[in-house]
From TrEMBL:
UniProt keyword annotation of Glycosyltransferase present: yes
CDD domains recorded: PRTases_typeI
Protein location: Cytoplasm
Protein's recorded name: adenine phosphoribosyltransferase
Organism: Tripterygium wilfordii (Thunder God vine)
Pfam families: Pribosyltran
Family: Belongs to the purine/pyrimidine phosphoribosyltransferase family.
Length: 186
């Protein structure tokens, strides 16, 4: 399901897009890094970002906002509080104390994992999965699999930025994805 807030011509989208700094060749040659730290410095654009997500998800019976480490932790908690949901961190290995379940996913070279606390979610709950950016979709797919393994229904995935040329949306299959900004590749 292809959906973007940019389709709605909301004037807040232009402000959000202009607040994101692009850093060429970081962390390596050929990468156009989408830096959200400048968005976080612009209080109006940051508030607009959170507000757009809250407006979309309020009243949709979402009980869990699952934020992917690390930048999903920035947007997830204020959205969760505003819609009356709990926030569940999806972390890299060995970052959560106590018992965890994990899901492995492929990287360009090798694999990685994300983890969540056992008991953080219950079967039948409805979740929003949030991160700052979708590129290849590997991390979002791992988060979806992890939540579905314990019986959670994925309502939607949400990202501030989509790098459409990397086709991450296609990897999500039938899971809907909502994004605010889709920069053109350079």
């Amino acid at each position: 399901m292809a959906e973007s807030a940019a389709d709605e011509k909301d004037p807040r989208i232009a402000r959000i897009a202009s607040a994101i700094r692009v850093i060429p060749d970081f962390p390596k040659q050929g990468i156009m890094f989408q830096d959200i730290t400048t968005l976080l410095l612009d209080t109006k654009a940051f508030k607009d970002t959170v507000d757009l997500f809250v407006e979309r998800y309020k009243g949709k019976a979402i009980s869990v906002v699952a934020g992917i480490e690390a930048r999903g932790f920035i947007f997830g908690p204020p959205i969760a509080l505003a819609i009356g949901a709990k926030f569940v961190p999806m972390r890299k290995p060995k970052k959560l104390p106590g018992e965890v379940i994990s899901e492995e996913y492929a990287l360009e070279y090798g694999t990685d994992k994300i983890e969540m606390h056992v008991g953080a979610v219950q079967a039948g709950e409805r979740a929003l999965v949030i991160d700052d950016l979708i590129a290849t979709g590997g991390t979002l797919c791992a988060a979806i699999r992890l939540l579905e393994r314990v019986g959670v229904e994925i309502v939607e995935c949400a990202c501030v930025i989509e790098l459409a040329e990397l086709k991450g949306r296609e990897r999500l299959g039938d899971k809907p994805l909502f994004v605010l900004v889709s920069p053109t590749c350079s």
